[in-house]
Structures are given as C-alpha cells and as structure tokens.
Amino acid sequence: MTGFGLFRIFVAGAVLAGVSASGQTASHKPRSSTTTTTKNVAVWTPAVQQALGVAASDFNAVGLNRLTKAQLDALVSAAQVSKKGVLTCSPAGTVVVGRVRVLVTVAGDDPTGQRAVEIRQAVHSLAGVDLVETAASADRALHVVIQEQTLGKRTIGFTASYMTSTPCVEDLGSTKKDVELKGELGTYTEPKGSDLARDLAGMMDQDLQPLRGGAR
Asked: Could you say which DSSP state residue 3 is in?
C-alpha cells in the first residue's frame, strides 16, 4: 500500500452506502505502543462493525489497530446511532448561503495543544468555513485522534485517525439525544508536524464541497 492510509465510509441518511480503501502501513509505532498493556490496545469488536462499518478483516488495514482502546471507543461513541428514532440534521439558527459551520475536536497525544490549534486554524482558513463550539450549531463535524510517533526517545512526528460526521438530533419519542451520522473515516500514517493539519484541512475542504452551495 502507498501514500497515507485512507478508509472512506459514505452514509446517506443512516444507511451505509459504500466503502473503498487504500493506505500505507506505518514504519514507526506510536509512543503509546511501548507503554500500554494489552488491555489498552484497540481491538476489533462487533460494535466497531456496527458503528464504523469496519469488518474484522479490515481493522488493521485501515489503521484502527494503532489506536488505544480509549481512542477507538471515542470514535465508536461518536458514530453510534440507535436508528430507532426520527433524525433531524438541520442546525438551529439562520443558514448563511456559502458558509458552513464546522465543529472540530482533537484528542490523543497532544499535551501542549499545539496540534489542536494548528488543525483548527487550518480548517478555519478554508473558504466559507466558520468554526463552532457545539454539535447542535454545526453543519459538519471533524473528530481527530492524534498519535505521537517516536524513534528511540525522539519525536519524529504525529499521525492521526479522523472521522467526519453530520451532527443530528434523534427523537426517540420520550427523549431526544445528540447523535452523529458518520461521513468519512480515515488515517494518516506518515509522521508529520504542522503538515498534518494541512492534510486534514485539504481532506475537509473536499468533504465540505456539497454543503457550500447553500443547499442546507
């Protein structure tokens, strides 16, 4: 496999529409792999299949095995929808034609917060993008999990797993809850510095194209 690991899942409504994959196996393991026990390593479960659409045979190929258990749980949680209620996916407030409201969350190996700042700035710099702080006010969301890559004791860069999604509200009759419909799931396995933010912004630029014409 060549380039960066990329696994795409497209969803129309709450139904999985299709899958394609290509990628590269990283030559450097994340720092967490040398310090965590087996209990903290991400492994495939039926919940991964249900929420992310990733079969056991594809788990390693798309890079999810490089996450910690907590990082994988966070991605699965963000993508879970019960599919028993009525979904409303139009954010509150006035829609401005040509503008897209985006929620960006960053977790993982980012103790100083520098990677998070770079990613948010890069996404905010995209044409027609306004950053928001809550899913309820967002047209689209980007969730990123950062992993520090080391060679010996030296940091050589950062990789990332990400998921785009559409924030919605699920009405179950007696209760309502915030949910997200997964869009694109992928991994960048080549260790990078600030260029990681640029790559994520480039991916997000393409992801937002359908929303830029004021269709929503």
From this structure: S
- SS3 of 121, please? helix
The residue whose two tokens read 């998921």 is 163
Lowest mean pLDDT among 11-15, 31-35, 55-59, 130-134: 11-15
Residue among 144, 147, 189 nearest 165 (CA):
144
* 3-12, 91-100, 158-167: range with lowest mean pLDDT: 3-12
Model confidence, pTM: 0.68
Distance (Å, rounded) from C-alpha 179 to C-alpha 33? 31
DSSP string computed for 48-117: HHHHH---GGGTTTTTGGGSBHHHHHHHHHHH---SSSEEE-PPSSPPPTT-EEEEEEEEES-TTSHHHH
Q: Look at residue 205 in the predicted model and tell me its pLDDT.
A: 96
Are 113 and 76 a contacting pair, CB within 8 Å? no
Closest CA to 8 of 180, 206, 175, 193: 206
Crossing angle between the packed helical segments 195-207 and 114-124, to the nearest 10 degrees: 40
Please, what's the b/e burial string for 50-60 (b: 16 or more CB within 10 A of its CB; e: otherwise)? ebbbbeeebbe
Q: Please, are residues 168 and 137 in contact by the beta-carbon 8 Å criterion?
A: no
CB 164 within 8 A of CB 183: yes
pLDDT digits (tens, 9 = 90+) for 81-137: 656 667 777 665 556 777 899 999 998 888 889 999 999 999 999 999 999 998 888
